[in-house]
Amino acid sequence: MKLPINIKQGLSIILVMLFIGTMMTACKNGKAIPSEKPTESHAEKEEPAEGLELSKAQMQAVSIQIGNIEHKNLSAVVKASGKLEVPPQNKAQVNVLSGGVIFRINVIEGQKVSKGQIIAIIENQDLLKIQQDYLSAKNGFTYVEAEYNRQKQLKDAGAGTGKSFQLSQANYNSELSRIKALERQLQQLGISAKQIATGNLTSQYPITSPIKGTIGTISAQTGSYAQPGTSLMDIVDNSNIHADLIVYEKDLSKIRIGQKVNFQLTNQDNQLIEGKIYGINKSFENDSKGVVVHAIINKTGRNLIPGMYVTGLINVGTELLTVVPLDAVVKAEGKEYIFVVEESSEKKHEAHSESDEEKEAEEATHFKKVEVVTGVSELGYIQITPLEKLPENVQIVTKGAFYLQSKSMGSAEEE
Fold first, then answer.
1. 192 near 169, Cβ under 8 Å?
2. Are 130 and 201 in contact, with CB atoms under 8 Å apart?
């Protein structure tokens, strides 16, 4: 039986409308089926991140030990920063007493020298005049001395006049003083008066090292003109190097002479150096409300240079502190962490049989990494201050934390 065309069109429209109505009803009831499954990345993002987890067998294999955070009396410290210095008598600037041309420099930068060692030669033609004046005074003094002795003998015999004796005595003292002054001047220039007396004159004089030490910056060069008051080079003796630390007013009452100090070299991988306080200034430094505290450094053999920045930990007594073993703290990316036991093993099982694998999974221990700030360390323990509040009687990893740290870094790299 054939239906008319208009009836077929009407049936098609009715069927389409029924299909659309069915789909809308399904969407309203939340029963619509997604066209595709969620991607693996979406599923991973929706899963909660889990902490580190180890079984009993794994913990025994890597010797992980668990314990409590302790409280011990450790040395309390005052932290102060500063830099290394040497006493004024252990550093010198080399100058010339009389200007002249630098004839020769006998040392190089970094060379060690002893006190009195010749380090340069200066040439000055004016030296010849000084030596000539000395020779003239020396030769003229022979007559003055003879006249003085003659007038003295006459006076003692009562034959001479007092006026003649006084005149000869004045000439004698004046010429003697002049000779002594010229001799002293030549001595300061490093020229021997005995050598000049033999007629051996020179236009050069030596520059000697005023202290024992190491040559620093040489600012002069051969052939240049050296003027009085202008330094030719620096010399530093580091044998008595010490640290000048700035202690602020709030901590000043805790500082005493003789207290032990541990130094950390800021730019030397925080190397530790021991020392002790030997002096405390009695005035504030540059209106900073800080006082300079001087600390002598024990002999260490390290290459310490004045100007190096240091951090000093001054031992000011003992204090009850929150501590953990040194092995419990790990470092990563400039921060410090401990591992806290987040979930204990041996859960209570329900009364039904389980496989060995399920039991082993139930006995796994979960760990959480917590950032801490460390303080003083002593006798194998180190002070910590957690950056988040921890439960009372919390347990931590006291040994083997480095394994958990490497495992956490490996997990992060895989992700």
1. no
2. no
Same domain flag for 177 and 131 = yes
| pLDDT for residue 92 | 93
Cα–Cα distance, 295 to 298 (Å, whole number):
10
Query: Within this chain, do residues 229 and 243 fall inside the same structural domain, yes or no?
Result: no
The CB-side HSE value for 286 (13 A sphere, CA atoms) comes to: 3
Q: What is the pLDDT of residue 271?
A: 63
Last residue of a domain, one of 236, 253, 286: 236
**Cβ neighbours, 10 Å, residue 257:** 11
Containing structural domain, residue 380: 52-73+321-347+355-414
**Is 113 in the same domain as 200?**
yes
Q: In this predicted model, what pLDDT tens digit does every residue of 230-264 receive, in sequence order? A: 899 999 998 888 999 999 988 888 899 999 998 87
pTM over 0.70, yes/no:
no
Residue 118 has pLDDT above 90, yes or no: yes
Do both 111 and 190 map to the same domain? Answer: yes
Domain co-membership, 208 together with 115: yes
- Six-digit token string for 7: 């009836």
